Hints:
- It comes from Urocynchramus pylzowi.
- The protein is an alpha/beta fold.
- It folds into 4 domains: 19-176 and 332-402, FAD/NAD(P)-binding domain (3-Layer(bba) Sandwich), CATH 3.50.50; 185-329, 3-Layer(bba) Sandwich (FAD/NAD(P)-binding domain), CATH 3.50.50.60; 414-579, no CATH class; 588-626, no CATH class.
- Helix content is 26%, strand content 17%.
- The protein has 19 helices and 22 strands.
- The strands form 5 sheets. Strands 1, 2, 3, 4, 5, 6 and 16 form a 7-stranded mixed sheet that branches. A 6-stranded antiparallel sheet has the order 17-19-18-20-21-22.
- The longest helix has 20 residues, at 389-408.
Amino acid sequence: xxxxxxxxxxxxxxxxxxxxxxxxxxxxxxxxxxxxxxxxxxxxxxxxxxxxxxxxxxxxxxxxxxxxxxxxxxxxxxxxxxxxxxxxxxxxxxxxxxxxxxxxxxxxxxxxxxxxxxxxxxxxxxxxxxxxxxxxxxxxxxxxxxxxxxxxxxxxxxxxxxxxxxxxxxxxxxxxxxxxxxxxxxxxxxxxxxxxxxxxxxxxxxxxxxxxxxxxxxxxxxxxxxxxxxxxxxxxxxxxxxxxxxxxxxxxxxxxxxxxxxxxxxxxxxxxxxxxxxxxxxxxxxxxxxxxxxxxxxxxxxxxxxxxxxxxxxxxxxxxxxxxxxxxxxxxxxxxxxxxxxxxxxxxxxxxxxxxxxxxxxxxxxxxxxxxxxxxxxxxxxxxxxxxxxxxxxxxxxxxxxxxxxxxxxxxxxxxxxxxxxxxxxxxxxxxxxxxxxxxxxxxxxxxxxxxxxxxxxxxxxxxxxxxxxxxxxxxxxxxxxxxxxxxxxxxxxxxxxxxxxxxxxxxxxxxxxxxxxxxxxxxxxxxxxxxxxxxxxxxxxxxxxxxxxxxxxxxxxxxxxxxxxxxxxxxxxxxxxxxxxxxxxxxxxxxxxxxxxxxxxxxxxxxxxxxxxxxxxxxxxxxxxxxxxxxxxxxxxxxxxxxxxxxxxxxxxxxxxxxxxxxxxxxxxxxxxx
Length: 675
């Protein structure tokens, strides 16, 4: 029967008429709209399919109690828009300043209805091509050697209309509720339908299944009206401030932890939900037992005939009956609409709710199928923010850049600078870049060195998981070595069992920067682009393979890495050691002296002074340089001899020898001139 249905489906597809687009996007949530924005800016042929009548339909229902846990920080003390996105977790990326979320709400934790209105404006003001009331119910493949990826994607909606596209972007999120089936699970209410009116729980005893933010959000809503609330899950509670993962329990929802630890009846329990069973007595009360107590017993014989754990253990923790049991177990990806030919498979272990994808966000089973948004979180689950707006707005942009290079020959955006700007470029990015900051360890800035280290090419926010594929994925060449800049927490600082408030938790000295615990920049130096084998064999918990050299910029309480001695000087010396050059900037007078006393000039002199570039000197500038010790005062030098005084020669050599630049005696120059 299955073969017959499959064959008939193929016949129906073969005779259907298809509306073609280069790119099809499933879902007009935040990720789908973000992808549509980049496609539209690039002038690509695309369409977004949304099953609801408006974008962001998930937020029309969730969270049930309407308060988002994504922060909306109005003030940072900075006017830099890129820096401010570090503390704006709701805005999507666009050129339109009207579409910053802080213009829609002043609440630190905004209402979900505001997010719905924001997404509607984002789609309408930017005139994104979204087709509403279109639910894609089936996706399959059509082999074609002329297609971009060797096949087309064929989509069918609820009205049996058909669409064809060369590239499929799945941004449908995770919206199917996780349900655990056990004896008596029919008595359980789901988070998606349970009442949100606290008065409906007055004087009741409640058991909540789950331990995520939805579970604690539900408990927070009824905490003041219930007899007591118990919460059970197979894992211990994970606090986001300990794990540094924003998807774990946030402080805004953790009131139950207070009432539990301060002995006010509420409590938390650990246990496998699949081992549970629920029995309803004659009064409608719900009793918790274990599945094995029901084995070989006739449940229909009545409540009194069933043994309960408290019959053997009279202090069994959940011996008190409950009025209600609520399931708050989160959501999973909907695999049902994808034909077997696409090989859309769930992940394994704790990421089984997400589809299997590569670090490039492309499906492991089908070329040309990319997963965006929350459903792509398997790449960085419990590691970074890729499952949330303030993370996937950047990974969506990265995917767009990969597609631009693959399908349209547009290389990854980059900027070329002279090597003298290397330190400044890094300092600027680590102090303001929001993508590096939010997607720590997952997105990285790449610096590709030019031959002889005279210049470099800067690429922003490239996925670290596909570093070995950089040349193929970006259209850029890494022939002379590279630096990789990422943000990291300390190796042993994050975890559910970690005390992140211990005494002396912060590092302040530059020489101990490698022991920094809080988020801080780390620079990896590779003489050659790492291979795929090196990526596979990298040390556990390392985002990248072992480099030829590594530098940690010491953590900073203000996340302001601009201190001359603590941050900039150690970084510059690290870069100089890697490149065997001098990255300091010199005044014209020093460059003039070096030209007569050294075989090789520092890069700043080569690219500045020799090239007739630099600041025009003045008496005030010279006086400042003298007072700061940056220049020697030669006004009283005895010029009657043929060689410079020892003090002058010593100061010249001191400027250069520490940086490996060979010194040529001035007398040699004089002799050469005489000859």
